[in-house]
Amino acid sequence: MSRPGCSVGSVLVSTGTEQGATARTAVVVTVRGLVKSYPAGRGRRGAASPPVRANDGIDLDVRGGEIFGLLGPNGAGKTTLVRQLTGLLRPDAGSVELLGHDIVRHPERAARLVGYLGQESSALDELTVALAAETTGRLRGLDIRAARAERDAVLEELELTALASRPLKRLSGGERRLACFAAALVGERPVLVLDEPTTAMDPVARRAVWAAVDRRRAERGTTVLLVTHNVIEAETVLDRVAVIDEGRVIACDTPAGLKALVADEVRLDLVWRDEPPLDVPGVAALRETARVTGRRWTLRLPQQRARAVVAELTGGPAFTALDDFTLTAPSLEDVYLALGGRRKGLVKA
Ligand SMILES: Nc1ncnc2c1ncn2[C@@H]1O[C@H](COP(=O)(O)OP(=O)(O)OP(=O)(O)O)[C@@H](O)[C@H]1O
């Protein structure tokens, strides 16, 4: 079982390059005891709202060349955490070390180490796609020729060249997100922090993002910290994941390691045509443990029991009331719930 917090000590890891037989000791991001509260506010009618403890003692280690995920529902504290890692927000307590630099004492150093794609992109909205990428390169210290060369390469890599002269504010949500991602890649940084980079993107754009991330990791050993509440994405692209809930790390491991925690269980989804037939005793008994979302009941059951339930439902009087049912292997969402995650905010697809 993984422990809460996510510290690994000093670990030998490969840089990710084929020549990178030079395995190196590398923990590039170290977070200890991070606490951040937002102050109490006042509502419109003067009613006081209590302070929000958004990060409540977070420990993390991210290794060089790793694609490391922060997974958790809305409001779990993921963005608050990465804004402290990127020097944009000052912690109340705790430490953040990036490639040996103390980011709490020297927040200005983060900009040289991290390419950050935040959730909001309004700062670039007036620029064209090309100018957003070029300007980012210039701000990161590239001379104009280098900035333009990198701009062109990145736009081509992400198949954005046809949109190069369009202002970001005139693009679709997914196109704008991809353009912002492109800009974040120009003027290479050793660490990429991406806060829900694929929001609003279609599958083609998503694949382009993951291919670009993978290429940088493989060719340059780039370390990637990814914020997501999409469990499918988390399972497919992450090397390790910290599950965040109410400002704390409640588990940290590889996706497979986390799923092993619930390996003997399966997930049974029942979708009723209308009202569930609670007069059938087997159905009434299931109701006790089901998570109900509209007409859908979701159950986590031991494999044997799930098989027996399906046989009973499909062979008995409840069958005509069923619209659909699916049996699936557990996902990271099941892990989140099994670990005591209290919100229903993880996205499954
Ligand atoms: N500027 C702020 N002032 C007050 N409270 C805030 C502020 N920013 C965030 N919070 C609160 O802090 C908590 C953590 O928010 P945060 O944005 O870090 O969560 P998140 O996990 O990134 O969520 P999401 O997945 O929705 O982006 C939430 O309860 C949120 O309402």
TrEMBL record:
Biological process, per Gene Ontology: response to antibiotic
Alphabetical keyword list: Antibiotic resistance, ATP-binding, Nucleotide-binding, Transport
Domain ABC transporter: 29-271
Cellular-component GO terms for this entry: plasma membrane
Cellular location(s): Cell membrane
UniProt xrefs under InterPro entries: AAA+_ATPase, ABC_transporter-like_ATP-bd, ABC_transporter-like_CS, ABC_transporter_ATP-binding, P-loop_NTPase
Primary localization: membrane
Recorded topology in the membrane: Peripheral membrane protein
Identification of the protein by name: ABC-2 type transport system ATP-binding protein
Naturally occurring in which organism (per UniProt): Actinacidiphila glaucinigra
